[in-house]
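Retro notes
What went well: the complex prediction finally ran end to end.
Inputs used:
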Amino acid sequence: MSGQQRGRPRSSHAHQAVLTATLELLTSGGYQRLTMEAIAAEAGVGKQTVYRWWPSKAAIVAEAVLSGHLATDASPLAETGDVLTDLRDWLSGQLARLTDPSSTALLRGLTAAAAESDTDAAKLYEQFTGPFRQYLVQRLAIGVRQGQLRPDARLDAAADLVIGALIYRTLTHGNLSGQGGADDLIEVLFAGLGLRAGVTPTSPG
Amino acid sequence: MSGQQRGRPRSSHAHQAVLTATLELLTSGGYQRLTMEAIAAEAGVGKQTVYRWWPSKAAIVAEAVLSGHLATDASPLAETGDVLTDLRDWLSGQLARLTDPSSTALLRGLTAAAAESDTDAAKLYEQFTGPFRQYLVQRLAIGVRQGQLRPDARLDAAADLVIGALIYRTLTHGNLSGQGGADDLIEVLFAGLGLRAGVTPTSPG
Amino acid sequence: MSGQQRGRPRSSHAHQAVLTATLELLTSGGYQRLTMEAIAAEAGVGKQTVYRWWPSKAAIVAEAVLSGHLATDASPLAETGDVLTDLRDWLSGQLARLTDPSSTALLRGLTAAAAESDTDAAKLYEQFTGPFRQYLVQRLAIGVRQGQLRPDARLDAAADLVIGALIYRTLTHGNLSGQGGADDLIEVLFAGLGLRAGVTPTSPG
Amino acid sequence: MSGQQRGRPRSSHAHQAVLTATLELLTSGGYQRLTMEAIAAEAGVGKQTVYRWWPSKAAIVAEAVLSGHLATDASPLAETGDVLTDLRDWLSGQLARLTDPSSTALLRGLTAAAAESDTDAAKLYEQFTGPFRQYLVQRLAIGVRQGQLRPDARLDAAADLVIGALIYRTLTHGNLSGQGGADDLIEVLFAGLGLRAGVTPTSPG
DNA sequence: CGGTAAGCGAGACGGTACGTCGTGTCTTTCG
DNA sequence: CGAAAGACACGACGTACCGTCTCGCTTACCG
């Protein structure tokens, strides 16, 4: 009878409350207000409980991101059949979202969490950007299969360029011009991917 | 004129010592060791002196970057006449530098400094990446003038893509494959810039 | 009942250590060395713990005095049956003790603590001198009961005079002449200034 | 002789302003507000000027007291011919003055200044209380000469008792009962504790 | 009358201590 | 035996004064 549940079981309620509190504090007050004490207090949870489940602030943020508590808005790209349009729309949407203060707060907080921990940094960042990267590559791969893109296009590198630019622009430029910014990136990107005949990579207008 | 010198003039020695100490601590111990007290102690300076000159840690790092105390290795691109070669070499060099632990520590510290201050973030980041961006655009502009690149190429967007990718890869990937990584990025970039006939953008077999 | 014990109880060990450290620093280095940081360090205690228990330095000193951690040497007067002898001996003893550097350091520190806080001053002083005052009045009262002193003698006023003189002499005179000083005070106390016939010293009806 | 006047003479205006500022700060805000910087600022004087003239805060207070900038109200006792009345009136007046908040602030500040400096303490205190003591002894001596007091009365000891009691009562008791308090002290002083027959209070020859 | 020397207000300097806040660990009681 | 509560040792924060040190500017005496 040794394998039996002893003592009080872990409270999944506490677990959820911590993740929710983390979201709340991160989007509202930035990374500065995201202290372990504030998380515990906001969640109505003992500090020890937080430390029992997560080794660091970065770990909490990481799980909050992965578990969907943080609205990262990582959505698959549309598949209209035209990879150019789909990518442009997706990129415009992402840039639009990044004008929202809570999104920039989140991204900045994430960056801070990554920067502060030598060990968790890479992991955290990859977990956060992973889904975006995955959706991007998936859609581009379809474009390749459909003959719209060169078969030997470096999809991974392209995804890195796109995501890196998104983050970089968010962190540096105060105001992002939603549509124009996307078009410029698209412009550079698509010719690089070897867009074939009949498709004009230039922007509308 | 009322704005004349009153009281003891500010010590440029103290000023320099703080910037030097900031570099030392940032590259050696990471952003965690970069406390105001450590900076003051390392510089042999009173804390008040630090606060008298800079309002925040981010501001110190920003000036340390700009003043050249931090070896950011932002160098102009070579001009061999072949923009492809020049960009590839430069990119390889940057990626190689970013494998150096002190460089990643610096970049991470910079990111942390940017993330911790809502106000200084954009400014700090732009100051740090500004020179890189400028050199990139300059060389690409020459390529345009020499007819190697499309006259309507979006140089700014290309620079954003490159720098964003550099930072992103540094923060996420533990190990960067110096040559291959650069080639992939080059591959995507150059066709996008409308590389003309006779120049092969593909990587070495 | 809502007022029940929650969380970790306060450490009486820390409490004691602070009082002991206060004594040590006060008697050895004077009030200047008695800083909150020094107390915490000497006691092996966090500063926060000190502030959690006491609102000010004066409060710590006050409790250290009351709790007997500070050797104030407030002892009852002997009862040989002769109030004159008992008072003279006690007074000589106190004056002798006050030639001890650590005692003067303590008294001076106490005075400094009292002076630095408008609110705690009176309380602190009274707590310190209270026992002395009490023992004095007690012995004098016995003298009255035994018919050695006038039944209408102002014992409180006499005690104030004695204690005030002790403090005053300690703070002003560098060197106190143990025996002679006591005798002079005794002389005045017991016989007064010897008001001559026809003059009534008592207060108006 | 080399000791002749060279350079700009010291500004008596600055000197006066410092003493006045010291008074102002000491009586208004207590000893806590009496910082060197506050004195210099209030006096409109450079800090160095203050340090050039006085080695310590206690020294400033001491001179402020002596120079009459501080209204210590040390006045001679009246000489109506009746030493009892004169002393009682004087004592009542002093106790009345000591109910004034600015007077207690001054006395407390003085005590603090004395307590904080091992070296200046005695000197400072004696300078402050000296005049009071002197006036007291003078009047008592007249009483002796006029045959109202015993020729062998210990006048110095009596003065110490009176002044000590005044200070002690001010520092400890929140409210001093002007008249009654004086009468009690007078009672003890003049008639003593009324030692009964057969007991000789005098000291050894 | 110009030179020289010291005092002047101002304020930055290297320090120390302040009182607060956050860290990660611990020790209670309660469920 | 987990979880809340919260005290613990520790260390960094940003501020206030300390006593010292330059600055540019008087204000005297001097040769």
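What we learned: Residues 197-205 of chain A have pLDDT under 50 and may be disordered.
What to try next: split runs per interface for comparison.
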